Amino acid sequence: MYLYGASGHAKVIIDILQSTGLSVSGLFDDNPDLKELCGIKVLGKFKLGQDLQEPLIISIGNNRIRARIAQQLPVKYGQAISKTAILSPSATVGEGTVVMQGAILQAEAQVGRHVIINTGATVDHDCLIGDFAHVSPGAVLCGNVSVGEGTWIGAGAVVIPGVKIGKWCQIGAGAVVIRDIPDNAVAVGNPSKIIKYC
Ligand SMILES: CC(=O)SCCNC(=O)CCNC(=O)[C@H](O)C(C)(C)COP(=O)(O)OP(=O)(O)OC[C@H]1O[C@@H](n2cnc3c(N)ncnc32)[C@H](O)[C@@H]1OP(=O)(O)O
């Protein structure tokens, strides 16, 4: 596996891949000063058209940057799923997606491409998680929640059953979301209120 982005997020992905017996052959990063991360060689900037022998994961936490890179790079994408995550046999996970330690995906949860399901997050039955979303550590999505493309759910947020959150939203850490949220909204607090649009 190759990674794109020598970030803190990449460190966690390296741990997940190595603990599942997969090796990381190298990291691409635009910063010419970076030479290695967690003992993995930094290979420099990814060149368009470069032929990769192994799949790639974009190891960048920012959803918009991850989306932009994925749209530019027609390569084969891998997944990193921690062996301590619990996935229902009926849950689905798209390419490029990372499911971190202690995360839970319940029955018929559908997780899109290049998503981050972070440490200890729970995604309950029938949830739909759009491409490029991020469910931060400890967030709880109850049953039948839908999260739009590129939306960021903050750490420890709770979304009650059936709520629909639009595209490219930001839900604050610790928020309790009890009503649908429109595209591009930033919502915080308990019960969550929209404070602005991004
Ligand atoms: C492994 C990892 O680390 S994964 C990363 C996990 N990271 C997170 O969960 C962080 C989630 N991010 C947040 O909660 C952020 O505060 C955001 C995205 C909601 C808002 O960020 P910004 O747009 O920079 O908002 P800003 O800091 O200017 O705050 C705007 C207002 O909202 C309030 N606010 C911001 N975040 C929250 C929150 N989580 N809960 C309650 N109020 C909040 C601020 O106090 C401020 O109020 P004021 O105008 O009355 O002073």
TrEMBL record:
User: What Pfam families does the annotation carry?
Assistant: Hexapep (PF00132), PglD_N (PF17836)
InterPro entries on file: AcTrfase_PglD-like, Hexapep, PglD_N, Trans_hexapeptide_repeat, Trimer_LpxA-like_sf
Segments forming domain PglD N-terminal: 2-73
Q: Which domain of life is it from?
A: Bacteria
- Spell out the family assignment given in the record's similarity comment: Belongs to the transferase hexapeptide repeat family.
Q: What is this protein called?
A: Acetyltransferase
Q: Native species of this protein?
A: Pontibacter anaerobius
